[in-house]
Amino acid sequence: MAMPNQALIDLIIEKFDGEIMEDNKWRVDGSKPGTHYWVEWHPFHKHYSCGCKGYAFRKSCRHIKKLSESFRNNLHRI
Questions:
Q1: What b/e sequence results for 39-74 when a residue is b if at least 16 CB atoms lie within 10 Å of its CB, and e otherwise?
Q2: DSSP assignment string, the chain
Q3: Residue 64 · residue 55 · CB < 8 Å
Q4: CA dihedral in degrees (65, 29, 76, 25; nearest 10)?
Q5: What is the pLDDT of residues 54-71, one digit of tens each?
């Protein structure tokens, strides 16, 4: 059964951490209160990027790991 676009978006927002702000781009909470970072999926290159310092130095961070795990864990529940 196909879901209307808005119903699907509402379900995704409810199930996954973060907020969908644009296609393939989510705002996630940082470790300090009030800080937020952008995690973006690059479909052409098939990888995530993040605006945090950890990603700038290591090209990997906990924000990406948390968001990616959340997607994997919750996709099976839809």
A1: bbbeeeeeebbbbbeebeeeeebebbeebeebbeee
A2: -PPPHHHHHHHHHHHSSSEEEETTEEEEE-SSTT-EEEEEEETTTTEEEESSHHHHHHS--HHHHHHHHHHHHHHTT-
A3: yes
A4: -80
A5: 999 999 999 999 988 888
Q: What is the pLDDT of residues 11-39, one digit of tens each?
A: 776 666 555 567 888 888 888 888 889 99
Q: Locate the domains of the chain by residue range.
A: 38-78
Contacts of 66 (CB under 8 A, 6+ apart): 17, 28
